[in-house]
Amino acid sequence: MMANAVGGSMSDAELLREVAQGGPADRYDAPQYDYRGKVALVTGASQGVGRHSAFGLARCGAKVILAGRSEEGQETVDMIESDRQTRDIGGEAVFIRTDVTQESEVEAMVGETISRHGALHFAINNAGHSGINDLIEHQTAANYDAVFGVNVRGLLL
Predict the structure, then answer these.
(1) How far apart are the first and last CA of the chain?
(2) In terms of CB atoms within 10 Å, which end of the chain has fewer, N or C?
(3) In order of start, what are the domains of the chain with their CATH numbers?
(4) How does pLDDT run across 108-129, given as a tens digit for each residue?
(5) Spatial CB neighbours of 100, under 8 Å, sequence gap ≥ 6
(6) Total-model pTM
């Protein structure tokens, strides 16, 4: 569940449903910030905090690059592109499939962003991995490496 602009909360499914029904104007009031002409990158944008952050930035007029490993990121782009308020203010969204643990993929994603928009003004490094939810004795070095790769190394790349 994510907090919204008016203090309530909504799940990803609720956000998608409201946009499909004409947009969540009652949840996201008029933009508090003006990001028209700005290019924003959101990692981990396929769901949860990343999805809501990307939607909010687009609602404020930003050109948003959604980076994620899951094709659900394209659903977020479709949601943003179908939102009337986002279109009216000039917000845009593009999904680039990216694994933030792979330096070459991160470099390619940033390169494509700059090639497409001429700049990258800010990023929300939201990608995260919680690992296996189990007792410490069941954790392996591979589990730790996966968590560290996304949550620490991916942030630095």
Answers:
(1) 28
(2) N
(3) 2-156 (3.40.50.720)
(4) 999 999 999 999 999 998 876 6
(5) 43, 44, 67, 106, 127, 150, 154, 155, 157
(6) 0.71
